[in-house]
């Protein structure tokens, strides 16, 4: 799996954890091991600009996903997953910090960025949360991936509750 993490935010983030959880999520979703993903960490001004440009919404947001080859998890265990360019995930640590502080189970910026990375991966794979049933599926899968990764890394305590909207 080729995953690039590029921190342009000026904020120190745990880039290795972002890389690790993205790799874990993609493996868990059975995405081809030669697929490529880019994760970019930006400040709130850059995120606000992207949010306005692509969503026509004011203010910065927590995570944005820009799919490329529209890869999807294979439908059956025996199917060979296609390889390709997944796309880009853009994260904003300033928004992640605020969301982590305001969450029901308060957590760190890095924990929120890990959650947002998984959220972004799922969006790249075609998951959405516009409808209640889609939200239940996506957030359930997101929690399972974050919990699985945390368990493999010996991280204790409750996983961050989904704070993405």
Written overview of the protein:
This protein is an alpha/beta fold and 165 residues long. It has helices spanning 15-28, 44-55, 93-102, 109-124, 132-152, and strands at residues 2-7, 36-41, 63-67, 85-91. The protein has a four-stranded mixed beta sheet with strand order 1-2-4-3, sandwiched between helices. Helix 1 (15-28) runs parallel beside helix 4.
Please provide a brief summary of the model.
The protein is an alpha/beta fold and 165 residues long. Helix content is 44%, strand content 15%.
Return the string of H and E elements: EHEHEEHHH
Note poorly predicted spans.
none
Overall morphology: globular
Specify the number of helices: 5
Give the strand line-up of the largest sheet.
1-2-4-3
- In round numbers, the mean pLDDT is 89
Helix- and strand-based class?
alpha/beta
- Rg over C-alpha atoms, rounded to the nearest angstrom: 15 Å
Report helical residue fraction.
40-55%
Q: Write down how many β-strands occur, each being a DSSP E stretch of 2 or more residues.
A: 4
| Binned strand content | 5-15%
Main beta sheet = 4 strands, mixed
Distance between the termini: 28 Å
